[in-house]
Amino acid sequence: MMELLPRRAPSGEECSARLLPVIDVRNLQVRFPTRDGVVTALDGLSMQVMPGEIVGLVGESGCGKSTAALSFMRLIPQPGRITAGEIVLDGQDILKLSDREMRALRGPSVAMIFQDALTALDPTMPVGKQIAEPLQLHKGLAAAAARARAIELFGQVGIPDPERRFGQYSHQFSGGMRQRVMIAVALSCGPRLLLADEPTTALDVTVQRQILRLIRQLRDTLNAGVVFITHDVGVVAELCTRVIVMYAGRAVEAGPTQAVFTHPTHPYTAGLLSSTLELTGDRSLPLYAIPGLPPELIDLPAGCAFAPRCPRADPECWNAAPILEPSGPQQSVACWRWKGD
Ligand SMILES: Nc1ncnc2c1ncn2[C@@H]1O[C@H](COP(=O)(O)OP(=O)(O)O)[C@@H](O)[C@H]1O
Ligand code: SF4
Ligand SMILES: [Mg+2]
Fold it and tell me: Were both Cys, which of 62, 141, 250, 295 would link to 146 (CB 3.0–4.6 Å)?
């Protein structure tokens, strides 16, 4: 397989930048006003991704994973708002940038494979142009070279007959093919940080493998950081160096994937893992083994949000929400009772 972008020696500035996180998120809070009340989709999320690192973000539907990735692109839909915190991307606090400055970062600095391919693509522009134009703009490629690169990327994400497909519009593609187009768009400028939001859900196993290979390749050739969002802990185990387990808009456990998966300290992590072990190897099955459902994120009660579903809850758990604290050399957990009784 060909490289995503030609290799070149990093500049001195880039070398020193490599010691810094690609993204450093501190105490992020995101709220959506709704008819029923204010939804706090993220409540104090802090996380970092180093260059060359693939960090998995896992948790059931509705726990804030997509909101986190959208806020890193500064694309939270109105009337939603980032109400507190900092997002430092490659050394710059993106919450202080103008819209124009932020637009310039999307593509080369941060790119996203959206969960919903239909809304992510521009229906009025041929799909090939949606790759070729940013390549001309951000990477200075001539029109013919940008076109050739777009066609090459289409081939790499498994789109048959890429030359003919270049000039077609998104509505002419099936759901799975649209997903591939969007993956090609996200990878095209070789971003420093890739946000992949359930990128392979709609794809068959062979294409899934191909996409995971491309993501690894982006990491290896460009030392990019990746946030990989999924509810599939099997994929996290295989792909991610570190994992962050989310519940009700918060990180409840974080650490190196191997440490977290062999010694989960949060009862929710343990539940997610044990439900996976019971699966018959079919990773497309949803994980429903934890009793009950995640809470609505409106007016959460004061205590631990997991308490109503937690097998280890005791009366104190209902009084105050636990904060993330170290539970091992590199592992952290938000649970009052992780040490046991
Ligand atoms: N545009 C929106 N308006 C209102 N609430 C939203 C919106 N987007 C997300 N939310 C709410 O924010 C919470 C987190 O959603 P999301 O980030 O999509 O979770 P996940 O990606 O983990 O499934 C959910 O409670 C969801 O209902
Ligand atoms: S704080 Fe209590 S309720 Fe929450 S996860 Fe820990 S044991 Fe369960
Ligand atoms: Mg989502």
Answer: 141
Domain count along the chain: 1
CA–CA gap between residue 18 and residue 50 (Å, rounded): 8
Digit-coded pLDDT (tens) for 219-246:
998 899 999 999 888 899 999 999 999 9
- Going from the Cα of 266 to the center of ligand 2, the distance in angstroms, rounded, reads 8
The protein residue whose alpha carbon is closest to atom 6 in ligand 2 is 335
Whole-prediction pTM: 0.91
CATH number, position 202? 3.40.50.300
Measured N-to-C along each axis, helices 127-139 and 175-188 cross at an angle, to the nearest 10 degrees, of: 10
CA of residue 61 to ligand 2 center, whole Å? 20
Region of poorest pLDDT, from 67-71, 120-124, 199-203, 335-339? 199-203
- Find out whether the beta carbon of 312 lies less than 6 Å from any atom of ligand 2: yes
Cα 337 to Cα 151: distance, rounded to the nearest angstrom: 54
Residue 283 CA neighbour count, 13 Å, CB half: 16
> Is there an atom of ligand 2 within 6 Å of 267 CB?
yes
Residue 254's domain spans which residues?
Answer: 18-109+191-333
From the CB of 336, is ligand 2 less than 6 Å away?
A: yes
Contact 56, 228 (CB under 8 A): yes
Any atom of ligand 2 within 6 Å of the Cβ of 310: yes
CA distance 291 to 268: 11
Inform me whether the pLDDT recorded for 288 exceeds 80.
no
**Is residue 5 in some structural domain?**
no
